[in-house]
Amino acid sequence: QVQLVESGGGLAQTGGSLRLSCVASGSISILIVMGWYRQAPGKQRELVATITSSGTTGYQDSVKGRFTISRDNAKNTVDLQMNSLKPEDTAVYYCYTMSARGGKFSPYWGQGTQVTVSS
């Protein structure tokens, strides 16, 4: 089992910045991918950004140029720097990882952290 704990959510104004952090713990072997998803009220959970263990990143089009994902493999952490925030970025943000252990691949999610952007 892998546990993910997020921190750093909160309230920001339009154009402001927030930084989300997530730390993984537990039975960690290889965290192939780490990333962030978000879910706004009444909407489906959507991918925000991902980063592989080798550092390859991917972003949802709506956050490209504004959000930056990074990870520290030694510390099993992943961060999301969010700049130029917009009200439509308001959502619960979930940390995610795909773990490989003993030939098995397992997804894990954090509990989520609220991000609210005021207009």
How are the secondary structure elements laid out?
Layout: E1 2-7, E2 10-13, E3 18-26, E4 30-39, E5 46-52, E6 57-59, E7 67-72, E8 77-82, E9 91-101, E10 104-109, E11 113-118
Parallel strand pairs: 2-11
Antiparallel strand pairs: 1-3, 3-8, 4-5, 4-9, 5-6, 7-8, 9-10, 9-11
Question: Would you kindly provide a written description of the structure presented here, covering whatever features stand out?
Answer:
The protein is mainly beta. 0% of the residues lie in helices and 62% in strands. It is built from no helices and 11 strands. The strands form 2 sheets. Strands 2, 4, 5, 6, 9, 10 and 11 form a 7-stranded mixed sheet that branches. The protein is elongated, with a radius of gyration of 14 Å. It starts with a strand and ends with a strand. The mean pLDDT is 96.
Question: What key phrases describe this protein's structure?
Answer:
single chain, 119 residues, mainly beta, 7-stranded mixed beta sheet, 4-stranded antiparallel beta sheet, 0% helix
In short:
With 119 residues, the chain is mainly beta. It has strands at residues 2-7, 10-13, 18-26, 30-39, 46-52, 57-59, 67-72, 77-82, 91-101, 104-109, 113-118.
Which stretches are poorly predicted, pLDDT < 50 over at least 5 residues?
none
The quaternary structure here is: single chain
Q: Mean pLDDT, nearest integer?
A: 96
> What form results from the Cα inertia axes?
elongated
Write down the Rg: 14 Å
